[in-house]
Write a structure and sequence with these properties.
Elements lengths: L4 E3 L8 H11 L11 E9 L3 H19 L19 H11 L3 E3 L1 H15 L3 E5 L5 H23 L11
Parallel strand pairs: 1-2, 2-3, 2-4
Helix pairs in contact: 2-3, 4-5
Amino acid sequence: MGLPFAFASHFAPALMNQALDLYRSGFRPSDQLEHPYAMLGVNVFAADEEEEAQTLFSSLQQAFINLRLGRPGKLPPPQRGYADRLGVLERSILEQTLSSAVVGTQETVTKGLEAFAERTGADELMLTSQIFDHRARLRSFEIVARGIGQERVERRGVPEDTPSFLA
């Protein structure tokens, strides 16, 4: 089919490469689309400090572990050092579900998103952040946007105030 493709790699990264390969190998140009076009979901957690970004990420980690262990519920508040206290089973759950997450400071997240897009050949990324505190979530997106804007200027020479759809 000659249509765009979107994949929920933000919670099913283990199947992402296989899904992309199937889409690209089976793609046939159409009136809507001449070449394959893939959009991938990515969890992103950005903060001014690495430790704070990891703490924000812990809410989603807890939620996935709870869901996989039969205890679904609301997004839990973050816990500093959460991942350090996990056992083998819990770590395995997170590797299966969240291995594509990008977590860290502006520099870390910008490089991580760029590497993810390059590694997968994604044409578009859909960023998501299940962060417990709304202000921290907004701040995370601000940090990501600033990093992407700065990267765009450095790589392409595009003015920062240029809307992304024109760049």
